[in-house]
Specification:
106 residues, alpha+beta, Alpha-Beta Plaits, four-stranded antiparallel beta sheet, 2 helices
């Protein structure tokens, strides 16, 4: 198993166009091996969904995911990085699976 320098990061996502939910979920699935957890909050009053995704990944992987998300129409994203590097391998960090109490965006 190859060990790489990684960082803990949170990507904040604001989904204003619910038609993009499938593309957002597809991207998150592609990076699921780096995802520790995610939380989604529908904010019906403003007709948006807010998603927080926590990753343990190399910096280039984190920025690539945030960039791909931000290029989707009606989606904004921003990454917040930890100051310390971590060691990451190919092991799973929860696999990005939806856990009890979480839902996919509809």
């Amino acid at each position: 198993m190859e060990v790489q320098e990684g960082r803990i990061a949170v990507i904040g996502i604001i989904l204003e166009d619910k038609n993009q939910a499938e593309q957002v979920n597809s991207l998150l699935h592609q990076y699921s091996s780096y995802i520790i957890g995610r939380m989604g909050l529908p904010y019906e009053k403003k007709q948006v969904n807010i998603i927080s995704v926590v990753l343990d990944a190399p910096s280039d992987v984190i920025s690539a995911l945030a960039g791909k998300l931000g290029r989707l129409r009606g989606v904004s994203s921003k990454a917040l990085y930890s100051r310390q590097n971590t060691c990451t391998g190919q092991e799973s960090h929860g696999g990005g699976k939806i856990q009890e109490g979480q839902q996919k965006i509809k």
